[in-house]
Amino acid sequence: MLRFSNQKKMHVVINGDYERHRRRLMEMVGDFDRSGEILVKGKRNTIKIFPLDGKIVNIKSFRIPHTVNKLAYRYLRKSKARRSFEFAKKLQARGIKTPEPIAFCEQHNLWGLHKSFYLCEHLTDQFSMGKPLEQKDFPNREEIIRQFARFTFHMHESNVLFLDHSRDNTLVKENSNGGYQFYLVDINRMQFKKLNHKMRLENFARLYADPEDFSIMGEEYARLAGWEKEETTRALIAANQNFKDWRGRKLRVKRFLGLK
Length: 260
Hints:
This protein is of the alpha+beta class. It has two domains: 2-121, Phosphorylase Kinase, domain 1 (2-Layer Sandwich); 127-251, Transferase(Phosphotransferase), domain 1 (Orthogonal Bundle), CATH 1.10.510. It has eight helices and twelve strands. The protein has a seven-stranded antiparallel sheet, with helices on both faces. A three-stranded antiparallel sheet has the order 8-10-11. A two-stranded antiparallel ribbon has the order 9-12. Helix 5 (141-157) packs across helix 7 and helix 7 (211-225) packs across helix 8 (229-256). The radius of gyration is 20 Å and the shape is globular. The two termini are 40 Å apart.
């Protein structure tokens, strides 16, 4: 634990061989606001990349939580950064790919959690699952969608429920043999438990795919699960529509309250 002159403490956990880079990793975190290449600059989180010994480190800086969550993340719940690090290791133990976890850092003050960071290896030569789902002329798109369905089945069989299983939270890399590898990102919301039929189907809800693409996924998933194909496809489409309806209602409420 490192102590800073501004009465903040930094709790740091580094994964395995990356311990030898501790000093450089801490420099990246300490100078995060002033250095690094920006990938994402959002209202809630910021992602930057930094070079490290021939590799690229991806650092996600989580938004400073509000007062209640400051205390909750300090004393009652694990921070998003810590969950990301620990969930990445659990995924790897189950044979599910995610960018190599490097470290997590939590900066605390008297009020609880202040800043937190998750560090992982940055993937190159990849694309998000959103591209083949959005672009009808994307090369080999049907095979990618089928392999994605197989990947999701493997994830479910491994007792993993990825609560943010959306098109942009799965990255895809092509193998030299023409196959594809799928990597989960933004992984701080997960449950590890045996999944029933309903949980599996509803886990497709955030993908925002067309009915034709859900038909491909439904056919492939049903084949692996031993389910009826048409019924599975209808359930996937219904789950997606229910999610869209819920998001629409939530947006209307926010607009009514002047929050959007």
